[in-house]
Amino acid sequence: MTGKSPFGRALGRREALALGGAAAAVAAIPAARADTKLTVWTGYPEIQPVYQAVAADFAKTHPSVSFDFFSTTLREFEQKLTAAVPTGTGPDVYDIGTNISVNFIDNSLLDPNPPNIDAYMKSGPYDKFTVDFFTTDGKTYGLPFLEGSRASMYWNKTYFKEAGIAAPPATFPELIEAAKKLVKFDSQGRMIRSGISLRLSGQGSGIGEKFRYILEAAGGSAIEKTPSGKWHNGYDNQAGRDALTFYVDAVQTWHIDDPKVPHDADAFATGATAMLFRESWVIGEIQSKNPNLDYGVVPIPAWKAGMPHKMMLQPEGVYVSGQSNNKALAWEFAKFLTNQQNGLRLTEVTGWLSPRQDIDWKPLLVKTPQFETFVKPPPDIVYYVEPVLPPWDEIESRLADRLTAAYVDPSLKGNPQAIAAAIHSMAQQTDQILKDAGLYGTA
Amino acid sequence: MSVSILDRPLPQRLPQGEGRRRITRHARLWLWCYAMLLPVMVIYAYVRIWPIARSFVLSFYNWRLIARVRPFVGLANYEHMLGDQNFHIAIWNTTVYSLGVVLISTVISLPLAVLLARRSRMSAVYQTIYFLPVITPLVPMSIAWKWIYDYNYGILNYLLSFVGIHPIAWLTDVHIALWALVIMGVWKVLGYNMVLFLVGIRNIPSTYLEAASLDGASELRKFWHVTLPLLRPILLYVLVTATINAYNVFTQVYVMTLGSQVAPGQVTRVLVYDIYQNAFEYFRMGYASAEAVTLTLIVLGFTLIQFRAFRERETA
Amino acid sequence: MRPGFNRRQLRRRASALLIHVILTLGAAFMLLPMVWMLATSFKLPGEIAVWPPHLLPRVPTLANYQGLFQAVPFPRFFGNSVFISVVSTISVVITSMIAGAVFAKYRFPGRTALFMLVLATAIVPFEGYMIPLYIELVRLHWINTYLGIILPTVIMSFGIFLIRQHVASAIPDELMEAARVDGASEWWTFRRVLVPLSGNAMAAVGIFAFIQAWAAFIWPLLVANTPQLFNLEVGLTAFQFRFSTDYGKLMAGSTLSTLPMLIVFLLLRRRIIENMALTGLKG
Question: Which of A268, A389, B12, C17 has the most CB atoms at less than 10 Å from its CB?
Answer without folding.
Answer: A268
